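User: Sequence recovery, please. Input:
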């Protein structure tokens, strides 16, 4: 693993590069993908990776040694594990691994290598360990946010309607005798007093 430094004017950007070594004619191909919700994690959290092993030649079931390695920007190994997987033509699985609590913030590479009969196939994916909390506006929370906004709008509408109804009722309740006479709802007869 190495860094590519790109400079333009006063801007400098470092790009982490993982060099994957494969056999000239590998019997397998490997694909690794880290789901979006695990691309930015905190120290000590668990990460999931979707892994696919494809058999390029042959159809009989064979045991393939699969190695998993997490490396930092300096190429140092943070985690490593290996297991044997039975593969016929293709197999897909999810690999979970927990990061150490004391892992440093930065960019990391999750590297997967499949070895069978001395032939090697590999793939890698990048993720970041950050001190920032995960954003609230994730896909899982968008529906909740929309429901809350709709509820607030409906509540405001009901409150406005109740206020208008209350004013309307008060205006009817404030009718006095003079208003009724003016609107010709009632007639007042004047009585002459005899002196």
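Assistant: Recovered sequence (195 residues):
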């Amino acid at each position: 693993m190495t860094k590519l430094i790109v400079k333009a004017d006063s801007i400098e950007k470092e790009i982490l590069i993982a060099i994957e070594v494969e056999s000239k004619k590998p019997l397998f191909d490997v694909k690794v993908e880290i789901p979006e919700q695990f691309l930015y994690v905190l120290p000590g959290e668990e990460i999931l990776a979707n892994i696919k092993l494809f058999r390029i030649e042959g159809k009989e079931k064979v045991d393939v040694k699969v190695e998993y390695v997490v490396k930092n920007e300096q190429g140092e190994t943070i985690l490593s594990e290996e297991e044997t997987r039975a593969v016929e033509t293709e197999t897909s699985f999810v690999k979970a691994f927990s990061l150490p609590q004391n892992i440093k913030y930065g960019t990391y590479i999750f590297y997967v290598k499949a070895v069978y009969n001395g032939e090697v196939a590999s793939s890698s994916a990048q993720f970041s360990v950050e001190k920032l909390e995960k954003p609230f506006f994730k896909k899982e929370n968008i529906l909740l946010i929309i429901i809350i906004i709709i509820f607030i709008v409906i509540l405001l509408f009901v409150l406005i309607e109740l206020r208008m109804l209350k004013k309307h009722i008060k205006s009817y309740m404030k009718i006095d005798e003079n208003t009724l006479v003016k609107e010709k709802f009632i007639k007042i007869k004047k009585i002459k007093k005899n002196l």
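Residues 139-182 form one domain.
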